[in-house]
């Protein structure tokens, strides 16, 4: 089976997005993701803790699916960091979509910092069972 | 504010400053240099710790966890956060990528002595557990008036 869903390399996506937005990028974190496929489509699940709906951006640009989210910390003014596993406030991930996917029908949900993106296959391209008729 | 730790200026410089700050404030408790209870980088869940004169805050990046399955406890100066994240597996599906952590987890953080274990609150929102620990009044920095 061909790969339906290729991850765009970080170098490509960083360059493209940084150029598009003209900002010196705070280095973005790569949100860990699961990807699976069933008969009707593909599902992508990505961890983006701290991202609220207002700060999440899921976009299709050409054949690319772009996921971006920013984290908002509620911190008192004088707070200083003692220790930080997380050193960025930006998550970013992008994937190349293949043609049999129906990008107009993509649905995204966000719950407790977990983003789920459902990408259905075009109806006409879904596998169909061909009934074999008797003589 | 964690942006201060991001590689804007010099990653190496920030890295060493961070370790210095850690050693000064927490001893070996949290630092990856030698802490017996520390976890390797990339361990789920990630944690950040901040402080102000009045309180210490621990942020635990635990998306998709049922708050009922989170356990936060303090014992003998050790804050322990443990829980379980269940990742449902679609039996009929073909998996191409499984990067997300599933299963039981635990992180432990040595607290500075001046934290009051009776005054702690924890909230879970957007996949981040925030634990706020108050310092004891007596240990807060005070301005000494010069007469």
Describe this structure in words.
The complex is a heterodimer of chains A (135) and B (147). By secondary structure, chain A is mostly beta strands. Chain A has a single domain, classed as Immunoglobulin-like (Sandwich). Chain A has 1 helix and 9 strands. In chain A, the strands form 2 sheets. In chain A, strands 1-7-5-4 form a 4-stranded antiparallel β-sheet, with no helix packed on it. A 4-stranded antiparallel β-sheet of chain A has the order 2-3-9-8, with no helix packed on it. In chain A, strand 8 and strand 9 (114-120) form a beta hairpin. The two termini of chain A are 34 Å apart. By secondary structure, chain B is mostly beta strands. Chain B folds into 2 domains: 1-38, no CATH class; 39-138, Immunoglobulin-like. Chain B is built from 1 helix and 8 strands; from the N terminus they run αββββββββ. In chain B, the strands form 2 sheets. Chain B has a 4-stranded antiparallel β-sheet with strand order 1-2-8-7, with no helix packed on it. A 3-stranded antiparallel β-sheet of chain B has the order 3-4-6, with no helix packed on it. Chain B is elongated, with a radius of gyration of 18 Å.
Quick overview:
Chain A is mainly beta and 135 residues long. Chain A is 9% helix and 44% strand.
What secondary-structure arrangement, pairings included, does this model have?
The complex is a heterodimer of chains A (135) and B (147).
Chain A: E1 5-7, H1 10-21, E2 33-37, E3 41-47, E4 51-61, E5 64-71, E6 80-84, E7 90-97, E8 107-111, E9 114-120
Antiparallel strand pairs in A: 1-7, 2-3, 3-9, 4-5, 5-7, 8-9
Chain B: H1 11-26, E1 46-51, E2 55-61, E3 70-75, E4 78-85, E5 94-98, E6 103-110, E7 115-125, E8 128-135
Antiparallel strand pairs in B: 1-2, 2-8, 3-4, 4-6, 7-8
């Amino acid at each position: 089976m061909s790969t339906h869903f290729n991850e765009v390399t970080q170098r490509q996506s960083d360059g493209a997005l940084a150029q598009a937005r003209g900002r010196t990028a705070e280095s973005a974190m790569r949100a860990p993701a699961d990807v699976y496929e069933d008969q009707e489509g593909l599902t992508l699940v990505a961890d983006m803790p701290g991202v609220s709906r207002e700060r999440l951006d899921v976009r299709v640009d050409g054949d690319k699916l772009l996921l971006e989210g920013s984290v908002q910390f509620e911190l008192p003014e004088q707070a200083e960091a003692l220790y930080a596993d997380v050193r960025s406030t930006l998550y970013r991930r992008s994937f190349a979509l293949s043609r049999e996917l129906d990008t107009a029908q993509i649905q995204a949900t966000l719950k407790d910092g977990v983003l789920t993106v459902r990408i259905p296959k075009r109806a006409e391209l879904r596998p169909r069972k061909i009934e074999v008729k008797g003589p | 504010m964690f942006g201060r730790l991001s590689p804007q200026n010099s990653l190496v410089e920030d890295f060493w400053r961070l370790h210095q700050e850690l050693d000064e404030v927490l001893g070996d408790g949290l630092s990856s240099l030698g802490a017996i209870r520390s976890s390797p980088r990339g361990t789920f869940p990630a944690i950040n710790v901040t402080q102000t004169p009045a309180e210490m805050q621990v942020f635990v990046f635990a998306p998709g966890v049922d708050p009922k399955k989170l356990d936060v406890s303090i014992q003998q100066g050790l804050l322990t956060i443990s829980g379980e994240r269940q990742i449902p597996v679609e039996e009929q599906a073909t998996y191409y990528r499984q990067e997300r952590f599933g299963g039981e987890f635990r992180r432990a953080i040595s607290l500075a002595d001046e934290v009051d274990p009776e005054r702690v609150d924890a909230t879970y929102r957007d996949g981040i557990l925030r634990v706020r620990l108050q310092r004891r009044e007596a240990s807060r920095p005070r301005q000494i008036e010069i007469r």
